[in-house]
Structure formats: C-alpha cells, structure tokens
Amino acid sequence: MSTTLMAGKPQVVSAGQHQAGTCRMGDDPKGSVVNRHCQIHDVDNVFVIDSSVHVTNGGFNPALTIMAIAYFASEALVRNWKGTGFRS
What we know:
Layout: E1 2-6, E2 9-13, H1 63-80
Antiparallel strand pairs: 1-2
C-alpha cells in the first residue's frame, strides 16, 4: 500500500482495485479504440477482449460483466472469422 494526497488529504491506495476503461468501445474511431465486437478500429485482426473495454466498475466486482463482454466478442470473432481480413 502507498499513500497519496488528494485535495491535500492523505489517501491510502491499494492494489485491490479492478483496472478498467483504458480502451473505449464505440462505433466512431475518432472517439473510441475498439468497435462493439472489441476489434481495434485501425488494425485488422487485433481484438482487445479484457477489462479495458469496460468503462467503469461502479461499486461492484466487474468479473461477470467482463466475462459476458469476452463471451459476446469471442462469439462474433468465431462467427465472422475468415482466416485473414476479418473486416466485413
């Protein structure tokens, strides 16, 4: 654990948080990293299927939501796979 300052007050920071939200999901490449199937907009055949596409965790453990997103994305990947050139 370490201590940081927030608003001038010491805060304890632990490694217990679930990291999420570094790869925004969306339809517009200008405002997001991956599409609705977790495929990177600008690179063919690269998918980000993890907690980084989950925007926020709220106050609950995100494990089931992350697994559901992974299941949904992998199902689309398998359904549309053509060996190379995944773009449709």
